[in-house]
Each structure stands twice: as C-alpha cells, then as structure tokens.
Amino acid sequence: MNRKCFLAAALAGLVAGCISYHTPPMDRRVTVSPDLGMAVWVTDVRLAKGPSSHFTLQANVVNNTDGVMRMEYRVDWLDATGSAIPSVVSTWQPMSAAAREVVPLQATAPSPAAVDFRFYVQPERR
Questions:
Q1: For the chain, which domains are there?
Q2: C-alpha pair distances (Å), 14 with each of 2, 10, 30
C-alpha cells in the first residue's frame, strides 16, 4: 500500500513539475504601460558599448496578441549620477507589431556620458 501511495505522489510531483507558467521577463530599466497588460513584453534587453564609445541598447518588443498592436516607445539615457541626459532622441517613437511578432529595436546613446537607460512602451496615443 505504501508503495502505491509513494508512486502516486511521485507521479503527481512529476506532472506538477511539467507545468510552466508564462511570465514576462523582468528588467527594472524597462516599463511597459499597465494599459498594455500582458499583451506586450520586452525581452532580450542588452546594453553594449560600440566603437564610438557610445552605448547601444538592443531590445525585443513581443506582441503576445492575435492582432496588430500599435505602440510607442521611448529611451531615456542616464549619466553616472542617474540624471537624464537631455536629447532630441528621447521622444516617443511610433511602432507596430503584427500578431505574435517580435520586433527588434535599437537605440544609441546621444553622448559617451550615458551609462544607463530607461525604456518605456505604451499604447499609441492619438
């Protein structure tokens, strides 16, 4: 009897271990508007310094829906003290993503003084 109980418990544990929960990747530097809910994720966020001594941000915006999503994104670049570096490139940029599409985005820091960033995604504002 104990053997049957053990086998049943082991099988239940094995089945429970195979269940996956899909959650969006978390990066504190990325903010996706609550208006988008789980419809959009930002994944594969990378920051690298190029030959010009300016950082380049690369990220993927993932449309988790079955329809086209129209959005806007913005990158704010920060200096070593955490202060925003004023720049004309830190404006909302329109983008769209087809159903289930992964859209790669790239942005280059406006100054070699930039050491970090904040990336924002929101629904398209009209």
A1: 24-123 (2.60.40.3230)
A2: 18, 6, 35
Contact 45, 36 (CB under 8 A): no
pLDDT value at position 8? 55
**H helix runs in 1-126, sequence order:** 2-18
CA distances from 28 to 45, 88, 104, 121 (A): 11, 24, 19, 13
- At 43-88, the pLDDT tens digits run 999 999 988 899 999 999 999 999 999 999 999 999 999 999 988 7
Query: 76, 90 in Cβ contact below 8 A?
Result: yes
- Residue whose structure tokens are 């955490």: 82
- Size of the chain, expressed as the number of residues it contains: 126
pTM as predicted? 0.78
